[in-house]
Amino acid sequence: MRRPKNFLWFLFAVVIIVSGVAQVNAAVTNNIEFKFKIRSYQANRYSDERERSTKNPKCAWMVDFRKSNEDAHGKKCKTRFWLDRSNFWGIGEQASDDHDILEGSGRKFYPSTKKGTQCTVCLGAENNNYNAKTYTASGFWDEETAVILK
How far is the C-alpha of 143 from the C-alpha of 135, rounded, in Å? Predict the structure, then answer.
């Protein structure tokens, strides 16, 4: 009779440990690399899709815009980024506000909208200026971080 009780306690401990590890892994900020050829006249570009499992829109997504070749004289430029999701028909819907981010300004954390919770998302990008320029923009992003915004 003693063995089954000990075994049940052992199973209970294993379940608690495994579920704790799973929660810690979900909260890790991933640095997913992106490299876009930003097209002219604000044509949209998109990264590969990622699963955003949170129910909380205040659970931040992150973008770290590192490098661009938009300006030939070394001046830092801005590029517009947002979180996008696919709906039933595969048509993109914006899942966050868009943000004009300065190249090399570090990690930026933003909330999603309600449309950006428990869904498949990607990083969207476009030129923040309506002109004929094309350029490359690269850096890192994460669809769901451990940062909770107020």
Answer: 24
Query: Which of 121, 43, 118 has its CA nearest to residue 80?
Result: 43
CA distance 136 to 39: 9
C-alpha–C-alpha distance, residues 116 and 112, integer Å: 5
CA-CA distance, 145 to 78, in Å (whole number)?
A: 23
- Neighbour tally for 121: CB within 10 Å: 27
| CB environment 72-89: b (16+ within 10 A), e (fewer) | eeeeebbbbbbbbbbeee
Beta strand pairing call for 135-142 and 92-94: unpaired
Give 96's DSSP letter. Answer: S
CA distance 55 to 115: 10
pLDDT at 68: 96
Low-confidence ranges of the chain (pLDDT < 50): 18-25
Give the global pTM. 0.79
